[in-house]
C-alpha cells in the first residue's frame, strides 16, 4: 500500500465500551477519518455510527470490504484479536489492535509474518507510552538524570473488577486475569524504557476458585477464576536492568499506577502507564547526614508534549508510513510484551526461570513536536 497523501481512512471492528474513547479521539485527529464501524451486534454498530457521525456501519466484513479504509482498528475481545487482525491483513489493510496482540505465540507470530510479507503495518496498544508522561520520563533517563538505570518497581493492586463490572467473568478467564489485562501497560512501559527482556521468573496465586458479581442484573452470580488473580514477576533485561512487578485483583488496598526507576544517581517516578500524562519527579542520593537522614527533596520535571488519548499510536503509525520510519507502538513490541507475559505464566506454573525468545529493536522516542491535532498528511 502506498504512503498516504491525505487523511487516512479508518474502520473499527468491535464497538464495545472502549470504542467510545477511540471514536472520540480519532474524530479529533485531522490525519485520519473514520469511515465505517462493524460489530456482531448490528444495532450497536448502528448506534455508534450515528453517535459519532460515521457514514457506514454493519458487520466486520463491511469494514474489511470497504475500498477506502486503509487501517482497521481491532477492538474485539482478546480471544479473536489475532483472527480479526489476520483477516484485515489478508484484506490489504494495516492494523491497529487493542492489547494483547493475541493469546498465543503461534497465531501472533503468523500475523506479523503475514503483515511483513504484504508490506503492511501492525500496531498494538497500549499507546499510553506515546503520551507526554512516559515520553518525558524517557527523555530524563536518556539525559542521565538518574545515572545508569539499575532496576524498576511497578505495582497495580486492588480488589478486582467484579465490584463495578456487570459481567466480569471474561476478565478472570484464560487469556486475561490481571497479567494479560493490566500487565501490558506496565510491561510495555518497561520495554519502551529498557528494551528486550531476556528472562522472567514469576509466582502466582488464585485467592478464590470462584468469584461473585457485585453489581448489575447478574449480582450474586458466580463465575470461575481460571488464571492467577495475583502474580509477581521478576524481569531481567538485555541491558542489565531488572524489574519487579506486581499485578493483583486480590488486594483490599488499592494502589495503582506505580512505576519507579532506580539508577546510580537517582530514582525517578514515572506516571501511571494507563494514562497519557501524570507526575514525573526524581530524588537524588544523600551525600551524607548525621544521626537521622533528612527528608528527601523531590525535584519535579515539567511534562513536555501534547496530551491526546486512545488512538495516538494509530496516528503515529499512519504518519510513520508516510515518513517511512518505524512507529512506536509496533507489532514487534506488542509481540515481545505478550511473550514476556506468557513466559511469566509458564514460570509461575513451573517454578523456574523462563527464557524469553523474542526481542525488540530500540523503541523510538516520540518527536518533541508531535502534535496529534495538526494536519500533516
UniProtKB/TrEMBL annotation:
In its keyword annotation, does this UniProt entry include NAD?
yes
MF annotations from Gene Ontology: nucleotide binding; oxidoreductase activity
Record keywords: NAD, Oxidoreductase
Does Protease show up as a keyword for this record? no
The chain positions of domain GFO/IDH/MocA-like oxidoreductase read 134-269
Which residue ranges traverse the bilayer? none
Which part of the chain is the Gfo/Idh/MocA-like oxidoreductase N-terminal domain?
9-123
Q: Which Pfam families match?
A: GFO_IDH_MocA, GFO_IDH_MocA_C3
Matching InterPro entries: Gfo/Idh/MocA-like_OxRdtase_N, Gfo/Idh/MocA_oxidrdct_glycsds, GFO_IDH_MocA-like_dom, NAD(P)-bd_dom_sf
| Highest taxon, organism lineage | Bacteria
Spell out the protein name for this chain. Answer: Oxidoreductase
Protein species of origin: Brachybacterium alimentarium
User: Which lineage do the record's taxonomy fields give for this organism?
Assistant: Bacteria, Bacillati, Actinomycetota, Actinomycetes, Micrococcales
